[in-house]
Amino acid sequence: MEHLVSTTNNVRLSFLLALLRDAGIKAHVFDANISALEAGIGAFPRRIMVPTKRLLAAKTLLEDANEFYDD
């Protein structure tokens, strides 16, 4: 698994996952359970991870959608 992007924005996280899913790229969210420790304030970013073999395709997809950045 390779790191693709990080975000603290749950709406953007859902959007990115939908983009990847629609393109047939399996993605996993790391650090999602940290919100239980932070009381839901959104201080810790969630990381979207993709298989190594699909990293280039995922980067290209997000670049085309102007969504390849960490926030």
Key features of this structure:
71 residues; alpha+beta; three-stranded antiparallel β-sheet; single chain; Alpha-Beta Plaits; 3 helices; 38% helix; 3 strands
How would a crystallographer describe the biggest sheet? 3 strands, antiparallel
**CATH topology-level fold name:** Alpha-Beta Plaits
Average pLDDT score: 92
Order of helices and strands: EHEHEH
Q: What is the strand tally?
A: 3
Supply the CATH class.
Answer: Alpha Beta
Class of secondary structure makeup: alpha+beta
Query: What's the total helix number?
Result: 3
* Number of domain units: 1
CATH architecture: 2-Layer Sandwich
Helix proportion range: 25-40%
Low-confidence stretches: none
The CATH superfamily is identified as UreE, C-terminal domain
Describe the structure.
The protein is an alpha+beta fold. The chain has one domain (2-64): Alpha-Beta Plaits (2-Layer Sandwich), CATH 3.30.70. The protein contains three helices and three strands, in the order E-H-E-H-E-H. The protein has a three-stranded antiparallel sheet with strand order 1-3-2, covered by helices on one side. The radius of gyration is 12 Å and the shape is globular. The model has no long low-confidence stretch (mean pLDDT 92).
